[in-house]
Amino acid sequence: MCELLALSSSQPARLTFSLRALAARGSMSSSTHDGWGVAFYQGRDVALFREPAAAADSALVRFLESQGPATDLAISHIRHATRGGVSLANTQPFVRELGGRRHVFAHNGDLPGIFDSAALACGRFEPVGTTDSEHAFCALLARLAALWQGAVPPPLDTRLAVLGGFAAELRTLGPANFLYADADSLFAHGHRRKQPGQARAAPPGLWWLAQECATDLAGVSVGPAAQSVVLLASVPLSDAAWRPLAEGELLVVRAGRVEASVL
């Protein structure tokens, strides 16, 4: 299956080991060698890097480990193609503008039937590629568009209600682990994924780690000052006390702190 990774921090930080660990899961010896991407927020905009090739073999991944931009919010994805060919257009994370800012989305799972779902129509947001994941992102933006009427983010509880309904509908179609960010908050939904030694998808679909850091955290260079950091990943990336998201749990993270958790 695909692999997901996200960072939220109270001050700008750099992905280091976490990106390398995620890339290792995308080697040609595994099933996740069909592309990789990472979006680094810089205010309301993002620096987006993607390749439709194995991440573990990528010179660009190695460059980003040492020279990637510092950020307080990032989303990364390693792809195992299940729907849509191997191409840049089908490589996650996906990025779109709404309300004068970039919105970022990455999904892990398979959503058969989404293209025929009237409830998950894309509205004015036309997919560029042919994946079920991008279709899901466009359907989410179609629901959120009515909320974003200006530069000020809509109330968090309003956005969370839309995300909760969206996630519940995705779960009826198949595994629906996803990361979504709107430059203000990070939303993470855990569902099911294929666990080692299991033939069928089962929870947990995502894990998270929150720490107050005065030195580098596993996979993150936090800089000289202490700060709050939250990492989310498909599997634990270190020996630290990672916690699984419950099946159907929606976590909201802002500036390195968990703001809300709903089931």
Short summary:
With 263 residues, the chain is an alpha+beta fold. 17% of the residues lie in helices and 33% in strands. Strand 7 and strand 8 form a beta hairpin.
Q: Can you tell me the CATH class?
A: Alpha Beta
Number of helices: 4
- The rounded distance between the terminal residues' Cα atoms is 24 Å
Instruction: Tell me how many strands there are.
Output: 16
Largest sheet: 8 strands, antiparallel
* Structural category: alpha+beta
Taking Cα atoms only, what radius of gyration do you get, to the nearest Å? 17 Å
Shape designation: globular
CATH homologous superfamily descriptor:
Aminohydrolase, N-terminal nucleophile (Ntn) domain
How would you characterize this protein structure?
With 263 residues, this protein is of the alpha+beta class. It has a single domain (3-262), classed as Glutamine Phosphoribosylpyrophosphate, subunit 1, domain 1. The protein has four helices and 16 strands. A hairpin with a 6-residue loop joins β9 and β10 (201-202).
